[in-house]
Amino acid sequence: MNEHVLVTYTFYVNGMHCKACELMTESELKDVPYITQVKSSLASRTVEVTGDFGNKSPELIAQELSQVLAHHGYSLSVAKVVLKRNWSEFKIAFPIALAFIVGFLALQKAGLVNLVNTGTVSYSTAFVVGIIASLSTCMAVVGGLLLSMSATFAKEGDRVRPQLLFHSGRIVSFFVLGGIIGAAGSVFALNVSATFALSLIIGGVMLILGINLLDIWPWIKKLQPAVPKILSKHVLGVASLNRTLTPLLIGLATFFLPCGFTQSMQIYTLSTGTFLKGGLTMLFFALGTLPVLALISFSSFSIHNSLKSGIFFKTAGLIVIMFALFNLINSLVVIGLISPVFNF
What we know:
This protein is of the alpha+beta class and 344 residues long. The chain is built from 12 helices and 4 strands; from the N terminus they run βαββαβαααααααααα.
């Protein structure tokens, strides 16, 4: 008679960046047959697993579970992973970010985009934020869901249709749900003070996101807002459904995942006050994420695992920080606390 003994181990997680990473590591490890319970923590960058591991050593267990998480960019270790701060990457990242912002300011001056504006976010800005979001560590969870779904349907010989359904479901749901949030905002009839407070929240969230992407102060990650974990777990649970509705439901579910970029756009959408403006804002954000997510769908594309990922994330972080500062400064202009800084 074999006696099953449940043992609990705590491993350090390398590659964890945001609340979405907690959900992804938990979701993937819970599918391992001999594991009964999983609890991830962004604060300590650890995962606690309980299961029947037999006579395996902690080192061997960490190695096996790392293989499960590898395609999402995570790995486990018994010893704490020392965060490497590669300051030299800023020598490349800063000029690229500066050139990006200068280019958009030039387009702003020409009236082609609306990057810097007093209290509003244009559709072109939402599109650019979507591009940045799709390449960020936070959006890796969406790519992870997409890859998991792709692998499941590929085994059944259905490679293209699920991808098209996922992207269609994502784009349509972002427009509809964004419109609902926008329409709901009209009920509250935000005054100048409320709009100012909302702009500060958006700028603050974006600032935290940008600093997190720099990956130099781990404690900042604790400040990032997130969807309640119980809701996000149910969102990830739709991946276990089957057949035609699954890709559509997963595409819709990504609206509720704890990606800070998505959340900042949702907060702004509340201030639009109409279904159409709210829907179009989230639509353009979703369209901005589409090119990279499409690459993930049909290739092994992954910025996260690239040798140049550090440079990219620092560049993206600096751009997001600049966006945040522009919005914060112009929020102060709207309320009349300071004079206009940008003459656009």
